[in-house]
Amino acid sequence: MIPLVPHKFETGETLNAARLNGNFRALADDLKIATDRRYAHSFAVFDFGGSNNGNGDGYRTFSVQVPTGYQIDIESIEAYFWGADGDAYTVTLGGDVSGGRSLSVTGAGATVLAWAADSFDAKLTAGQTLTVSYDGAGTWTLTRGLVIVHFRHNRFNGQAPSEYEGLEIDGTTTDDATPLNNALSDYATDVAAEGNAAEALRLVVFSMTKEHAVPTTLDYTFRIPAIGARVISADFGVCADSGSESVQFDLDNESATQQVTATVVGAGSGTMATDLGNSVDSTQAQDDSDDSADDWTLQLQGAGSADIYRAYAALWLGE
Amino acid sequence: MTLSGIISASQLDSDFGAQRSTLEAAIQRAPSRAVYPLNVFDLTTSTAESLRVLRFLPEDDLEVESIAVFSGVTGSGSATITATLTAQSLLATTAVPSGTALPEFVLNKTISVSDGATTGAGANARTDYQSTTGDRLTLKKGVPYMLTLSSDSANAVDAQAWIVAKARFRLS
Known about the structure:
Mean pLDDT of chain B: 76
Largest sheet of chain B: 5 strands, antiparallel
Shape of chain A: elongated
Helix content of chain A: 10-25%
Oligomer: heterodimer
Strand content of chain A: over 45%
Shape of chain B: elongated
Strand content of chain B: 35-45%
Distance between the termini of chain B: 25 Å
Mean pLDDT of chain A: 87
Number of strands of chain B: 9
Radius of gyration of chain A: 26 Å
Number of strands of chain A: 16
Strand order of the largest sheet of chain A: 1-8-3-6
Structural class of chain A: mainly beta
Low-confidence stretches of chain B: 91-99
């Protein structure tokens, strides 16, 4: 990397205060840019599949929980809906989102995309829950709904930004090098703080909406690419007809060693039952997403006697 | 370096350059990769696009690292499934004021990967875009993209796809 400072000082030139100040201002500007870029922007995709007004809430609800030690700032939400022309839907962010927030979208046809978006400003801290849901007005039929929640994560987890302002020499200073030393030392201190950037937080949601009238027919494995990420925690949810069925979630690494397991029992009446905040804290040993041998797997297996409609696993990743 | 006494030009250059380089290295720590999965159950050649698409709008520039497609539990018979990533207009049915043609992005490029002869669970194909030859792609923030799954067969197959993309943090 070639250092990019405004002025290169040459032997024999007269030390010019303006040029010196310019270099210090450039350093200060760079620190400001670094501060601005401490945020990693992410988005989580919640795939609702299809539903209609006769189905229970569980068909159209996701819940996830911010992992311990992290916080997220929700910035915006998008809805991609394919529903009957004129049907009115409301997407809601709830749980611990202050006051709840909603977005309206009107269907344009069963296979015609209707899109809506809005900015949001909501902060969720460790252990708080984000619920993403939608509902329709009157009689409605949704072919498929995708809701994307954009959020940002401060890679410094709230560390105060640098206030370094450089050095202003007035051109008449005849002091020794102390002011320069101090200015550069202050800068080095703030750069060192920037060096503490932690992992960016990502949320990946694996969901399935295929109905399984016989729960034991649910035996499905999602593959998760190796990206050298740390799986911080996992949230699970199941929507089923009654409490007589369950779904077991098994997250295995590339060596088929189990990293986390959970069994979620149906809550009945099409209600979403959840098991949130399962600590995993396991780092992928490989980072070659192009090698299938390095994939992790997430297996969902059903048990019981009543219908299973939806199941999802939300993985919080850090890298 | 600590300056003292007579300051040489090389001292100044060295110190400014070192500080800037240190910051550059600091901000480049922790490049972050993200996974965007798409799962479609009972995919056939007649499955409507609305049921086999992931649309998204990145808010960071993202370097595409890999794209993959693979089958989970299959029905009977064979099928070739394809995952395709492309930039698209958000509302594909909306005519623009100047005519009926849709606006396209200058950087519009379609990439895809196919899994041929899918006859059992676990078949997969993937392409690495980090390799030193061939395409190297960046998804621009603020541009809408879509990842679609498609099949050439009436035989239903449970299909999965993903893209892995990396966000980098740079000073300039």
